[in-house]
Amino acid sequence: MKISRRDFIKMGIGAGIALTCGNFADALFAEEKKSATADMVAIRNGNAAQMFEAGIRELGGMSRFVKSGQIVVVKPNIGWAKNPADGATTSPDLVAKIIEHAYKAGAKKVYVFDNTCNEWSKCYNLSGIEKASKDAKASVSPANKKESYKKKSAEKAKILKNAEVHELYLEADVIINVPILKHHGGAQMTSTLKNLMGVVWDRKFWHGNGLHECIAEFPLYRKPELNIIDAYSVMLKNGPRGTSASDLALKRMQIIGTDMVAMDTAAAKIMELDPAKIAYLPLAEKLGIGTMAIDKLTINKVTL
Amino acid sequence: MTKYLRKVYQLLFFSFTAAIFSGAIENQGMIDFYNSFHIFPAVSNIAAHGVQPFWPVTLLVLACSLFIGRFYCSFLCPVGFLQDLGSALGKKMKTAATSVKSRRILSLFIIGYCACAVLSESSLWGWFDHFTNFGRIYNNLVRPSFNGLLLPFASILNKTSFQIDELSFIFKFDFFYALALFLALFIGSMYRPRWFCILLCPSGVIFSFLFNNSFFKIIKDGKCPACHKCEKCCPALSINDGAVDRQTCVTCLECIPACPFGTIKGRIAFDLKNEKPDDQKLNAPRRKFIEKTAIAAIGITAAGFSEKLNAFTGATGSKTILPPGAVSAEAFFSKCTACHLCASSCPTKVIIPSFLENGFHGLSKPKLDFSRGYCSYECNLCQTVCPNGAINRHDINIKQMIRIGEVSLDTSPKSNCMPVKEGKDCGACAEHCPTGAVYMKRKGDVFIPELRKKYCIGCGICEHACPISENKPIFVKPVGAQKMVPLFKDAKDKDIPVSKNPQSRNTPEPGVNNKIEEFPF
Predict the structure, then answer these.
(1) Do A44 and B517 touch (CB under 8 A)?
(2) Does B421 touch chain A (CB under 8 A)?
(3) At A21, is the pLDDT very low, low, confident or very high (cuts 50, 70, 90)?
(4) Which residues of B429-439 are buried (b: 16+ CB within 10 A; e: fewer)?
(5) Nearest-CA distance B29 → chain A (Å)
(6) How far apart (Å, rounded) are the C-alpha atoms in residues B36 and B53?
(7) What is the distance between the alpha carbons of residues B25 and B29, in angstroms, rounded to a whole number?
(8) How far apart (Å, rounded) are the C-alpha atoms in residues A242 and B435?
(9) Domain assignments of chain A as residue spans, ordered by start
(10) How far A15 CA sits from the closest chain B CA (Å)?
(11) Is B376 exposed, middle or buried (0-12, 13-18, 19+ CB in 10 A)?
């Protein structure tokens, strides 16, 4: 195609208008989002899969986050070789439901993985997540070898300046972060921010150089597009592994949203903890990862 | 045809062996089935623990040799397979001997020695046993080499459930022992095919004794123009001018189809006296018997003597951490022959051969090295695979209460522990502890680890997870004898009913805590 000078100018003007309007529309749309859809949805009194169905509908459906042909990573907590009933790993039904919704929204492929603390095959198997994910046609792969991790650096970080991050976490179009809410001996609480420790290779660096700082800084590498906190049965003490059923409390809740800091603040309250005293939350807020002022946000509350 | 069939069998059984040794098969029945094929470990297991589920297989292997000879040696044995590979090369290069006279003095000595050792529950027979030696070659040489060969493809393979470890040779005694043995078997067979089977193997002696008195015979019957085709194909060099030496014959049956005149035949004959070679004088059998008995008796005496010596050097208590179910150093070292099956199938690869930490008694015997891994709480594979029951077998919930080591924690002001030294939260040890023996307690602004020693099983995951690389503040020490510990339960807390059934976790149970929790925000 030959382009004349006049055509070129026309196109230039057109593109300019489109760009300006685009920016404007974006701004408008963002405003609209705030009024029409909630920042965060909290659901209670159902099973994990039911609560997710209701919550994602309230948030505008999975198609808001996953577009046709995209690669999606679902990152549950599979850290421990424990049964789903032990409350140490994300509910497999919930993971399956999320995968199902991602495929319905047009995802090309959904991956599920976690860099486990216990031996990976035992974790994948006992947690029930491998089977549930495979049944939902997701690709489940072990993440226990260094070759899958890529060296990255974050300029704004003070301590976690370099990290080896799982290639799928870096390359996927959409990350869906699905922690289970638990007590944690070192970090006090495991939720959305702490769950991302499972996509890096060298966790010992985090423990040995400032756990709270590293947890707060990691989202500087990449923030998940969607977070879902599984707070059905919540481990209130002896976490993150748990020692007996007496560590668990049946809360039957779930939080879905995009602001990890806000979600974790709400989650801390479910765990009957003071969010301000969980050191990584104020640190993450300071880094601009999200806000702890959840009173100022619109939280849609759904009771099933 | 027989030749290829035999190779297929050998290859199949070798693959089975590799699958068991690599830990790919975790099924108890399959592992028991496999282990029951090997006479010495199987009999030793029965001697120590009573009749095993697959004892008919062990009996069948023995019975088969009575009827069809050493089929185990020619069709199944992985050491025989290794030697056949060597002799195949030897035949190609024309280095292999064409005929040898069999001298069985050494093997008689060994069988006496081994039999005595098995019955007196001493593990010294392992130094001669073919299965044990194969295990050592596999774990210390074959497995790491195989990993090394696959290393270039690791980035592809590791995304599947087929996992490649890093190059994991441990250049200590066992590596050199395995290397020497492998070279001896392979290169030795290039010159003297199947030398181990004929000169050393104690199982081979048992088989050939049974075969010697068996109903099945391979005989020369009819015209033999001395074409030597049978001699050339024989993998054990047991045919001389068409006469089969039954002491060394491994009944591979290759000579029968190899004979172009149909002179070499297999025959079932119930008359035992029929087949005496001509040169045997009347009193020769008796003299031979006395001779053999004397040699075996020397072996038995030697076994008793070396066991005394062995017991003398054996240390009291263990200086290493033993696999769960080993009970104590004394009990373990007297049964374990160091076949390294536990080490090579261990999913976390925490089990490695020890050197002389526990004296000669403990040489090559497995130990746990927590700098390499930890003993996985949900795993009891080492107990499942142990072919002679040196590691006692327990249900997983019992194994989870066996104390194999004792945790030691230093949180004094001089300690290296992160929260103590730098005032930063860590919690790696407590988060990994599966029993609740390590937990975090608030002290000032940070949480520091504390112990409930009573519940520690010494799995070593705290030591392994600790981010401090040198002078770890938390580590696991060996214990004198393994004991059961109680299960940790927070007595102060009232039990909140939560379903133990994984399926029903996400459906609220009727009548159980059905009040709707309020959002606290």
Answers:
(1) yes
(2) no
(3) very low
(4) bbbbbbbbbbb
(5) 20
(6) 9
(7) 10
(8) 9
(9) 5-303
(10) 44
(11) buried
CA atoms within 13 A on the CB side of A146: 7
Q: What is the pLDDT of residue B467?
A: 93
- Determine the residue of chain B that is closest to A202 in CA distance: B467
Reported as a single tens digit per residue, the pLDDT across B64-114 is 877 778 888 888 999 999 998 988 888 888 777 766 665 566 777 777 777
**What is the identity of the amino acid at B341?**
L
**Is there a contact between A42 and B499 if contact means CB atoms under 8 Å apart?**
no
A178 has pLDDT over 70:
yes
Q: Which of B454, B505, B514 to mutate to test the interface with A (most CBs of A within 10 A)?
A: B505
For B414, counting Cβ atoms within 10 Å of its Cβ (0-12 exposed, 13-18 middle, 19+ buried), the class is exposed
Task: Give chain A positions within 8 Å (CB) of B436.
Answer: 238, 243
CATH fold, domain A5-303, is Rossmann fold (3.40.50)
Residue A105 has φ and ψ, to the nearest 5°, of: -75, -5
A302: closest chain B residue by CA: B519
A181 pLDDT above the threshold of 70: yes
Long-range contacts of A234-238 (CB under 8 A, 24+ apart): A234/A87, A234/A181, A234/A182, A234/A270, A234/A271, A235/A87, A235/A88, A235/A181, A235/A182, A235/A183, A236/A183, A236/A271, A236/A272, A237/A183, A237/B490, A237/B493, A238/A183, A238/A185, A238/B436, A238/B439, A238/B490
Residues 444-463 of B with CB under 8 A from A: 447
Distances, alpha carbon B78 to alpha carbons A49, B10, B18, in Å: 52, 7, 10
Question: Could A250 and B513 be called an inter-chain contact, meaning their C-beta atoms sit closer than 8 Å?
Answer: yes
Mean pLDDT value of segment A86-99: 95
B403 contact A CB<8A: no
> How confident is the model over A11-36, as a mean pLDDT?
46
- Highest mean pLDDT out of A16-20, B113-117, B279-283: B113-117
Six-digit token string for B416 = 């290296």
pLDDT computed for residue B252 by the predictor: 83
Q: How far is B419 from chain A (nearest CA, A)?
A: 9
CA distance B216 to A270: 79
Indicate the average pLDDT of chain B. Answer: 81
B281 Cβ partners below 8 Å, 6+ apart?
Answer: none
Subunit contact B430:A185, Cβ cutoff 8 A: yes
What are the C-alpha distances in Å from B126 to residues A16, B142, B383, B393? 84, 19, 18, 20
* Residues A185, B418: C-beta atoms closer than 8 Å: no
> Within an 8 Å CB–CB cutoff, is residue B379 touching chain A?
yes
Q: Among B506, B509, B518, pick the best mutation site for testing chain A contact (most A Cβ within 10 A).
A: B506
**Mean of the pLDDT values across residues B118-125?**
75
Nearest-CB residue to A186 (from B348, B376, B428): B428
A186 with B521: Cβ contact below 8 A: no
Nearest CA in chain B to A275: B521
The predicted-structure confidence for B427-438, as pLDDT tens digits, reads as follows 999 999 999 899
pTM: 0.82
Helices B202-212 and B39-49: crossing angle in degrees, nearest 10, is: 100
The pLDDT of residue B132 is above 80: yes
- In angstroms, the CA A157 to CA A130 distance is 34
Q: Report how far apart, in Å, the C-alpha atoms of A150 and of each of A153, A200, A206 are.
A: 10, 9, 17
pLDDT in tens, A123-144: 999 999 999 999 999 999 888 8
Q: What is the pLDDT of residue B292?
A: 72
